[in-house]
TrEMBL record:
Every O-methyltransferase dimerisation domain range: 18-92
Ranges where the O-methyltransferase C-terminal domain occurs: 116-325
InterPro entries given in the database record: COMT-like (IPR016461), COMT_C (IPR001077), COMT_dimerisation (IPR012967)
Keywords: Methyltransferase, S-adenosyl-L-methionine, Transferase
Any single Pfam family the record assigns to this protein: Dimerisation
Species annotation: Nocardia iowensis
GO molecular function, one term: methyltransferase activity
Protein name as catalogued: Methyltransferase
An annotated GO BP: methylation
């Protein structure tokens, strides 16, 4: 075996080990959030024994946790037993407006992990693992647990912040008068659009549970007079009256048949000059881990949790065709990867 072969073999082993310990790394981050260690360390270097005292933890155990967090790039080790927070770790501080805590908590939620344990079954059968494990679909499960539903809404809001900042400059909203955000949740994305386009009015359309935090969002941004809330079921209908229908991170939750139903209802109320703007990741036609990266894991998550999928441009074009729409453009949202803007018009 040559030196090059040995290097390649070691690199391969290192890759397998990183993947093998991946779930443990996620639980390490979850423990850090539950113990509030990032907040307790703050902006200065702190000794592990002091952090342990603040949390009521055993000092040696806390040191071991902080060492592991340093190995993951969330803390930086200094003198023996002393640590500070890295820029990545700072995103786990609940006091920051750009905190990702809710997102991490949601994706390390025990119910999500229990469903993921059945990934192989979903691959074999095509069934939704979550439904089989819990005897109900994911959104029905959330509806019965208000605290978890609020956590989910907060996680989706955190996931949408980057898009909300980038979208208003990436699309010509000025040519429209009213936009309906279909499945708009707490209004993070639509608020971003309305703030940048003062002549535009909006409608957030979602279930009662999905809209629960929307009034707070609109009030925070001074948009209560320019945006209305409508509760309903997009599998039954979509409110009429808008010339732009925005659908972000919705279609990937559903099967092709269900996605066509949502788009068909949007098409039914779309004026001749109206547009539908879909904001979702678009997988390349040929696997490209450089540009798509974690989107492939998101695709598996959709399969396991809700039965949906991530899609290619060809897939989106086919959904639009079946709904009486024509896909006119797909534009990567450069400031908020991996999302793209998919524009469709009446066919």
């Amino acid at each position: 075996m040559t030196d090059n072969d040995m290097t390649n073999t070691q690199d391969a082993r290192d890759l397998i080990e990183r993947l093998m310990f991946g779930s443990m790394a996620a639980q390490t981050v979850r423990a850090a959030i539950r113990l509030r260690v990032i907040e307790l360390i703050g902006n200065e270097e702190r000794a592990a024994v002091d952090v342990a005292a603040d949390t009521g933890a055993e000092p040696q155990s806390m040191t071991r946790l902080l060492r592991a967090l340093a190995s993951l790039g969330l803390l930086r080790g200094h003198t023996a037993g002393s640590f500070s927070v890295t820029p990545a770790g700072a995103l786990l501080d609940a006091k920051r407006p750009d905190s990702l805590i809710a997102l991490v908590r949601m994706f390390t939620e025990p119910a999500i992990l229990r469903a993921w344990e059945q990934l192989d079954d979903s691959v074999r059968t095509g069934d939704i693992a979550f439904d089989k494990v819990f005897g109900k679909d994911f959104f029905s499960y959330l509806a019965e647990l208000p605290d978890l539903s609020a956590e989910f809404n907060a996680a989706m809001s955190q996931a949408a912040e980057e898009t909300a900042a980038a979208l208003p400059q990436a699309f010509d909203f000025g040519r429209f008068s009213t936009v309906t955000d279909v499945g708009g949740g707490n209004g993070t994305v639509l608020s971003g659009v309305l703030r940048e386009h003062p002549t535009l009015t909006g409608v957030i359309y979602d279930t009662e549970e999905g809209l629960a935090q929307a009034p707070t969002t609109l009030e925070q941004h001074g948009l209560t007079t320019r945006c209305s809330l409508v509760a309903g079921d997009f599998f039954r209908s979509v409110p009429e009256g808008s010339d732009l229908y925005l659908i972000k991170s919705v279609l990937h939750d559903w099967t092709d048949e269900q996605a066509v139903t949502i788009l068909t209802h949007c098409r039914a109320v779309l004026p001749p000059t109206g547009r539908i703007l879909i904001v979702e990741p678009v997988l390349p036609e040929v696997v490209d881990t450089e540009t798509a990266g974690s989107t492939y894991l998101s695709d598996l998550n959709m399969m396991v949790i809700v039965g949906g999928r991530e899609r290619t441009r060809t897939d989106f074009a086919e959904l639009c065709r079946k709904a009486g729409l024509a896909l006119t453009s797909v534009t990567p949202l450069a400031e908020a990867p991996p999302f793209s803007l998919i524009e469709a018009t009446p066919a």
